[in-house]
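Example 5.3 — M14 family metallopeptidase
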Amino acid sequence: MRRTQVRVALLAMSALVGSVLVATTPAGADTADATVTAGSERSHLEDADDVRLVHVRMTGADMLDKVVAAGFDLEHGLRRVPTGIEGEAVVTAEQVAELEALGVEIIGDDEAFAWSDEADGGLRASGARTAQAVQPASHEATVRVVRADWFTTKGQGFLYVEARTTEGQQSNPVVTMQLENDSGKDTPFGFARTMSRFVDSGQYMFHRNLFKLDTRPSQIRVTSSTGGVTTGFVSDWLEDAPPPLTSNPGYKWDFVDGYRTPQQLYSRAEEIAREYPDIAEIVYLPNKTNGYQRKAQATIGGTGQSAVVVSSAAWGHEGGNDITVEFVERPGANLPLSIEVQGKAIRVLLAKDAAGALASTAAQVAAALESQSQGLVDRAHPYRTNAGTGIVAPTTGPVALTDFLDQKRAGAPEGEVPRGPATIPVLRIGKHRDGRNPGVLIQAQDHAREWVPATTSLEAAERLVHNYKSDWDTKKIVDNTDVFFILSNNPDGANYSFYNFASQRRNLTNHCPDENADPGRRNSWGVDLNRNYRVGSGHDGYAGGSTNCVSDTYQGPAKLSEPESKNIIWLVENYRNIKFMMSVHSNGGQLFWQPGAYIADGRITTPRPPLGDEAFYWQSASRILSQVKAHRQTVVTPENVGGSSDVLYSSAGNVREDLYHTYGIYAFGWEVGGSVYNPATGNWQGGSFQPPWVGTPDLVSGHSETMEYANGIMEMFRVAADWGKDKKKPTSQLVPGGGTYSGPVDVRFETSEPATIYYTTDGSRPTLESPRYEATEFREPGQVFHVTETTTFRWFSVDAAGNVEKGYDPTNDGKRDNYRSATITVTGR
Ligand SMILES: [Zn+2]
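Solution (predicted C-alpha cells):
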C-alpha cells in the first residue's frame, strides 16, 4: 500500500542549520597544504641533551598543522582554548626562534588558559554588550543547548556547558552567548557568564564554558546577543557510585610495579600464556618490525660544503660499527682520487692538482665512497642541502662509524636491547578463543615515549588471569570476551625511548632522503604509526599527517607502509570477532572515537557515526570513565570526550578511522594521564609521558594512572561482554505520538537504548537504505521535524548489537511489515 498522494512538508531543522554553515566560506581554506613537502632546512631535535619543554599557544588548527609539519614535537597534551590551541613543545633553543617565526606564542606556565570562575567567564563582557547593541531587532535567532554537565572531583563541583546558535558562523559582528544557571530546582537564574566561541578550521563549532560551582544547578539558560534564548536541564557527568568491578574482598590487583621495556612486556605476556594455558595464548604477528637497529654513520668534515656523510651498508651491530673511514693527504702533485679498503678500514686518498693542492670535493669523495668501498658503504653524500662543492680536508686519523645505539641516555634501564627486527606477541585471553565471543583489541604504545599505556594494559591482563578462578566478575569477562593485548605496538621506538632518546614518538625507520639522512637527524626519523592507516589519510588530503620525514606526525611513504600498522590490519582480518578496540595513548585525559580526521578546507570530516553508534559510544565512555573516576576521583571532562577531530584536532590516517569504517569495529582512542584537578591550587594539572612511577599518588604518578585507567579497561571488557549478550530488541517512539493536531507540530524520535532509526514519510516500507534519523548537529540529540501537513512515519530501530525492533526484517520485502508506524494529522492552520 503506497500512499504517494500524501505530500509531505517536513522540515528537518538540522538541514537548515547545515545550509547556514555551508553557505559561509571557511576562513581556514588555506590549510589544505598542511602536509607541506619535505626538504626545507629544519633543525629538529638534534640531540637528546639540549632540548627543553616550553608552553606554546597557536591561533588554531591551521597553525598547528604547519608547526607539526615543520617537524616540531607537539603531539599530546594539546588542548583547545578560546584563543586557539595550547600545548607543550620539546625543543632546542634554536627551535624556539623557529616557532616564533611561525607565529607561535611562547607562554609561561602561569599564562596557560584556565577556565575562569569570574562571572564574565574570563572574557571581556564589554564585547558582548557591543554586539548586542547592533543586533537587528526583528531577527529570529535560534539557540540550542548541546550539553549541560555537572560533575564533582575531589570535593569541587563543576558545570560544563556547550550551546549553539544558528548564527555562530557570523563574523561581523560575532554572536556572543550568555550563560546563566540556577542554584537548584525552582531557584532563579543568575550568575551571567559570557561563553567562549569555539571555531575550528574556519568553522563555528559551538560556544562553551567550564567553571567551578559549589551547588548543583537544575537548569541553565543561554541567551544569544541576537535575541535567541533557551533553557536546558543539567545532567550528571559520570557516576559517583558505578557498579563496582568486583565486590570480592579477595580481588587481586596492583601487579605492575614500574615501567616495562618491550622485552619485559613480551616475556611477561609469554609467561602468562604458559602459566594459564586454559585461558591464554600468544598470537604472533606476522610482520616483524624493521628493527631496533641503525646503519653506522659519521658526518666527516664539519657541516659545510666540504662535509661528507657516510652510512654503512651493514647494520651497525652486524659489522657497520667496525668500519672506519679516513681521508688521507699524500705528498706530491697531480694525484687522482682513489679508495683503499683493508678489512673494515676505508682510506680515501684525496686528489691533488698540478700545484700539489688538495683537489677532491665532498661530492666527488661521496661518489667514490659509494662506488669503490667494496660494499662497505651504502650511502655517502654531502651534508644536508649542500652541493658538496668544498675541497675535502684530511682527517687526523680513521673515523669510526657508529649506529649511536650504544650511547645510552642517562637513566636508561639495565639490560641489553636485542638488536634487529622484533616479532610482536599478542596476548590473547579468553575462555573461548574460537570466535564465538566478542573480541576486544587493546593496543598500547603505538607512540614510543608513552610508557603508561603499556603498564596500564599489562595491569588489566594480570587482573584477568589472576582473578579468573577466584572472582565471579572476572570469570564473567574471561568467559564472555576474547581479549587481544598488544602491550607495545612500537617496540623499536620504545627501546629507543628507554635507552637512547626519551622523547621518541615514532618507529625507528629512516625514510629520509640524503638531505635529512645524516646522523644529526637520528632523533627525528621514523613513521608516526597512528598516521599510517588508510581511512581519512593524509595521502588523501586529510589534515594532521605530515609528508615531512622528520616531522613527528610523518605519515610514512604510503598507507600501511609500516609492519606495525600492517599487523593491526592482519589481526582484525584474521580474527573477525574483534568488535571493540582501544588504542591507548598518553597523556591528555581524553577519550575519543570518530570522526578523527577532516579535510581542512571546509572542515570535511570522515563520516560521522550514526546516532545509535554515537549514543553507544557516549554510554560506553560514561561507563569506562566512571570506573576510572572510582579509583582516585580523576574526571575526564566532557569537553575531552567525543569525535577526536571535534574535541582535539584532525589526525589523518589514524587507526581508529580505519577499524571503524572498514571493519565496523567500535574503535576508541584513549589519552590516559594528565588533567587531574589539584584542589591545592584550584587548577587542572597536566601530566607527562613518563611521570615518576610513584610521584605524587594523588596527582602525577605513573602508578596511579596505571591503576585508575586499568579500571577503565576492565569496564571496557564488561561493555563488550554485555554487547555480546545483548539480545534485547530496542524500542522507539515518535514524541509526541501520532494523533490529530490543530497546527504544525514538532516531533522527534526517542529510543529505549542507543539505537539508530531508519524511517520513511512517503508511504514506503522502511529499509536500511531509508533516511537515517540524525543528530540535530554533532554532539546533540536527534533532530526535530517540523510537521506542517498530515504525515505518516514508518520506521524501525537497530541497536548497537544489531538487534532490530520487533524483529522486523528490513532486507526482505516478502516478510512481515511489522515496522513501527504513526500518523501525525494536522488540521487547519
Ligand atoms: Zn600517542
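Remark. Residues 1-49, 115-140 have pLDDT under 50 and may be disordered.
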